[in-house]
Amino acid sequence: MKLTNYSFDAVIVGAGGSGMYASLQLAHSGLKVAVLSKVYPTRSHTVSAQGGIAAALGNVHEDDWRWHMFDTVKGSDYLGDQDSIEYMCKNAPTAMYELEHMGMPFSRLENGKIYQRAFGGQTLNYGQGVAQRTCAVADRTGHALLHTLFQNNIKAKTHFFNEWYAIDLVKNAAGDVAGVIAICIATGEMAFFNSKVTILATGGAGRIFETSTNALINTGDGLGMALRAGMPLQDIEMWQFHPTGLPGMGILITEAVRGEGGYLINKDGERFMERYAPHAKDLASRDVVSRSIALELRAGKGFNPGGMDYVKLKLDHLGADVINSRLPGIRELAITFAHSDPLVVPIPVTPTCHYMMGGIPTNMHGQVITLGEQDKDRIVEGLYAIGECACVSVHGANRLGSNSLLDLVVFGRAAGLHAEKAIKSGLPLHPIRESDIEHALTRVERWNTNKNGEDIKTIHDEMQKVMQSDFGVFRIEESMIEGLKKLKALRERLKDARLKDTSQIFNTARIQALELDNLMEVACATAMAALTRKESRGAHSREDYPKRDDLNWLKHLVVFSDLSVNYRPVNMRPDSVDPLKPMERVY
Amino acid sequence: MRFSIYRYNPETDAKPYMKDYEVDVPHDSDMMVLQALMLIKDQDETLSFRASCREGVCGSDGMNINGLNRLACLTPVSSLKAPITIRPLVNMTVIRDLVVDFTLFFQQYEKVQPYLQNHAEPPATERLQSPEERAALDGLYECILCACCTSFCPSSWWNPEKFIGPAGLLWAARFLADTRDTATEERLANLQDPFSVYRCRTIMNCTVVCPKNLNPAAAIAGIRHKMVEKGS
Amino acid sequence: MVNKLTTDMSLTGNGLRDWIVQRFSAVILGVYFFVLFGFFVFHPHPDYLILSEFFSVTWVRVFSLIALLSLFLHAWVGVWTVITDYVKPFPLRFLLEAFTILLLIIYFFWGIEILWRFV
């Protein structure tokens, strides 16, 4: 196979919020940096984020990053690493001001400062009341963030390789990562990007589920690459189901609706969250609200019990002014996709797969961690992971709304800073042999040569069905065992599947096949991890083990590609504050 | 329902052709054109098109549907007359099928220096901006760069390289309207040649097709107005 | 160089100025034709005598001159725009632009000659 060779100091895979923040950080360093993105940068999934970014700016009331940290740790059901959470919350205000200085068009308060709204699980003074901590650009915060970063990368003259799809990491015998193999979608040209530092910023994998708020491109490409290169995924059983997705398509309706005063009702018109979370009500954290909705539906209190069941989100009482100025995008989406104008009628909503708390384990500089000798942490030289594909573990078992954009920004920046320092202190191009490259090419070779297998479509759909039915909001041993069995069989079938279209120019069928490899890896890892964790914590809710079990399960779970499982301790040693001890979690 | 779709793969086809597909669309279905395209791709995996967010915020799936540029993901099949004819965005180079080349489009965008410019040392916290000042950006910053407008603008057909086009100019207006930006004069000076802005003839195709209901034509008028005000 | 000249030699070389000139001259032409229209309403059957009498009044003559100048400017901006929109091959564009400008100059001086013939 003909391969073009490119050589860079740093290669970033993915041009969403975290990737473009890292590239911006590196752009000012004078180093040779490339960003590979399988779509034009402004198509990345960050663009879909709506509600906002949490940061204890204190623009509306007194605020403290320690309160933010408390909420995040509690929200994570104590599975989050406290050193990382501390770093994120402490650096959040600086990051917000940086974004503002870059031109991000934040909504404003009367005094001219950045507008902040209430969001689920964000409280004042260690759980005392509802905090307004979420910085927002109406309900288009992700769009504004992504475009601002793209624009500043244009200004910084970042070298983008748009519509280049990364296929696999190139790893040498010592286990160091020396770059990636990628394909130019438009021409079919294959290339090896040799780099001192490779940063994975490939986003989530919500497309393993049948309905998801995620973009079609969220196929876990970085996760698949890491698994195939022998690295594990951490806490991958932790999938967040957003309480308010539109039934069917799974279009996201932001939590900001509830932050602005909207609330959920069942078919009797009852505001049922008052029963499940007497204090925070509709602003309890997402796992709690999603489970409550699921229980309502199970009790026959949904609006459409026979079919695609749902509850409703009422916001007409907020008035046209608030809706049109703070939630204009939601109104558009509800009208277009649910034929419901929220000015007049409530919007149908149901819990929908939204976010992957787990991912490639990293330290707080974004360096990827694998397990080395005696199962001790070992840093993978040359490889970083940031954003949703990473598990720096600030979200633990359940992410708080508006902490994901913050994660992108803070750790995108941290990885950029660390990589720059590492490269400038003399990090070399990692030596490789021809066979290392050949190894990374095996997968694409397989798709080019398999001639007789089945089409990928059936395998893809069956995988999504299994995930949806056996690994959803509530999980139970028997069906998960069945589910895992089916997934393993599907993974075997996928090895023999074939591609009918093997053309070179903009062959999206080939890209979908390569993506399915990644989805399948993530689905299997998720199933294995979910089956293994015998407790309920955060988003992982087992009917057969309904309680949290700190004695046995207050630890990270890591899964490898061969579905072997191992564990890592949760970090409980923040740098400047006392550790937060696990408490019962009520809202 | 019958779909007639523009097909062209330069590797195998001497020239483009239209191909018909049948898709089962239930009577009261709220299927969008994007979903129909995905069903067609299940029948024929060689059909190429772009898609990502499927909710109208990423700008990937702009295409010409029954004669108008629109986003496939926001266009209900039920709103269209059969047979539904789908072509790539007008007047852009076709890479394959419904996939067009965005290179020139993004070059035009970059020409307006689409980023905040303010050379003063930023304060320790945020720069202040009143809600009214911020409201001036509404209707401008929401652009998703789908190219529906620029591809449908006759002035862009006539002078694709020299006229910046409605999308780029909308972004120019967005930064001119930002009270935090201090480069107003340079920005206006950069746009004063006879082509960049002034090729706009207020044909308004941009405003008609914008899937986000923005009004690039008004934004362009605003730029002219600012130039007159500055009297330069 | 010449190529650049034929694409860039708008009236003022500046979009804003061209645009203002075009609009300003349009207003003048509008008023002028309104005056002419009024004249023809009051003189439904003008003959040479009535016309020459009208055009020998000083303000009419000055106004006509201004209107001629406006027509020259207005037409150049408009026709130049249309030519640069539609005519891409350089030699043809050059010929058309040269022809137009020549024609406009001829009209202008011919107009002056006609007006001042009445003196």
* Distance N to C terminus of chain A: 58 Å
Give the overall shape of chain C, derived from the CA principal axes: elongated
Average predicted local confidence, pLDDT of chain A: 96
**Helix content class of chain C:** over 70%
Which spans of chain A have pLDDT < 50 for at least 5 consecutive residues? none
Low-pLDDT segments of chain C: none
What is the count of helical runs of chain C? 5
Structural domains of chain C: how many: 1
Number of strands of chain C: 0
Radius of gyration of chain A, in Å, reads 23 Å
Helix fraction of chain A?
25-40%
Structural class of chain A: alpha/beta
Number of strands of chain A: 22
Q: Roughly what fraction of the amino acids of chain C lie in strands?
A: under 5%
Radius of gyration of chain C: 17 Å
How does the overall form of chain A come out from the CA principal axes? globular
Largest interface: A-B, 59 and 55 residues
Order of helices and strands of chain C: HHHHH
User: Biggest β-sheet of chain C, characterized?
Assistant: none
Architecture per CATH nomenclature, i.e. the level-2 architecture of chain C: Up-down Bundle
Give your account of this protein's structure.
The complex is a heterotrimer of chains A (587), B (232) and C (119). Chain A contains 16 helices and 22 strands. Chain A has helices spanning 17-27, 65-75, 82-102, 141-155, 221-228, 256-259, 273-276, 286-298, 319-326, 328-338, 404-424, 434-449, 456-470, 477-496, 508-532, 550-553; strands at residues 4-13, 33-37, 53-54, 116-124, 129-135, 159-162, 164-171, 177-184, 190-200, 233-234, 239-245, 263-265, 311-314, 347-356, 360-361, 367-371, 377-385, 390-391, 474-475, 541-542, 555-559, 565-569. In chain A, strands 1, 2, 6, 7, 8, 9, 16 and 17 form an 8-stranded mixed beta sheet that branches. The radius of gyration of chain A is 23 Å and the shape is globular. Chain A starts with a strand and ends in an 18-residue tail after the last strand. Chain B has 9 helices and 7 strands; from the N terminus they run ββαβββββαααααααα. A 5-stranded mixed beta sheet of chain B has the order 2-1-5-3-4. A two-stranded antiparallel sheet of chain B has the order 6-7. Chain B is elongated and about 60 Å long. The mean pLDDT of chain B is 96. Chain C has helices at residues 2-8, 15-42, 48-54, 58-86, 90-117. The longest helix of chain C has 29 residues, at 58-86. Chain C is elongated. The model of chain C has no long low-confidence stretch (mean pLDDT 88). Chains A and B meet through helix 3, helix 4 and helix 10 of A and helix 3 of B.
